[in-house]
Prior knowledge:
This protein is of the alpha/beta class.
Amino acid sequence: MSVLPSPQGTSEKISARSPALPSSAVQRLVGVEEGYERWAATYDQYPNPLIAREERHVAPLLPDLTGKSVLDLACGTGRWLQKLLERGARLGVGIDNSAAMLRVAGRKASIRGQLARADCLQLPFPAAIFDFAICSFALSHIQGLYQAALELGRVMKANATVVATDLHPEAHQRGWRTGFRDERSAVEIHVHPRSAEGVLRAFHTAGFECISYVSLCLGDAEEAILRRGGKAPMLADACRVPAVLVSWFRRRDNTAVEGIQ
Length: 261
């Protein structure tokens, strides 16, 4: 999902086993649409330590979803939507703005027909229909975060729970980037980096209260992934950096929304 700086100062993908680049290849900065169009075909093929760390923390904390309606916002290849449905959700929907990622998700029988291409700034749902939502590693791809949080608040029921995860702001400051490499080049996907306080403020002003937010470092469980990706020399440093920010929110009963300060 992201990259960290190599000992030489260049960016290397930590999710491992991507095709080797020719020595003349240079890293290219691309927009979200182009980036995920190229990444989609191989996105699920290689272990990713950030995704592994996120799942290891979030999965045991998920509420009982039996009979509930759930939303996977910016669902990508449908990783979390599959897990939410396995936990008993009555209705599950995944939305994403990347046609390429949705094509991959649509090949998975358990979520086929439960996916839609949509912009998170204009969700194609009536108000107050979801009990639970997750937005995984996507907040920094959203330019209008407050507007997205406001729209998310519109479709969530009162007291509904939302989990939002992303690359930790400190990791970004230290040079970690969202990207990958393929046979053509190394690719960095453009993001809108934000502080933890900025994320919390956007959701608060959109009608949510923060239940908790946690900074996660990579741990022993992710060590094997880093080693397989040839990152053993930077393992110690990588595991000291807050890598993932996980925020839990509850939709307030009051539908009034505060102005942005």
